[in-house]
Predict the structure.
Amino acid sequence: MYEVEIKNLQTKARIGIKPQERKRFQKLLITLRFNYKIKNRSNLDNIKYLKDYSSIVKFLKLFVENSKYKSLERLVFECSNSLQKNFKIKNISICVNKIEVAKRYKCESLSVKK
């Protein structure tokens, strides 16, 4: 079993419960973890059997930037479902951190994880 981690991917979204929060983009950091199996060691160099990290990162950034969810919880849920569906990956752990809001509250992180 191989575990992949894409840590602190910087992106942005219009997100927030209050309408004024959604007026402008907010910076987000996203950490995605998932694992998958490769049945045969001879396939370790064959892209056909590997996950395309570049495609996953591009998809995730685009998905988040085009999202219109109000809560981090909904964003995390929808990201997870979309990644499972589009890339056939399971055991997803995704964490979204609102870094600007965290700074405002003088804390290191304000995030939601599933």
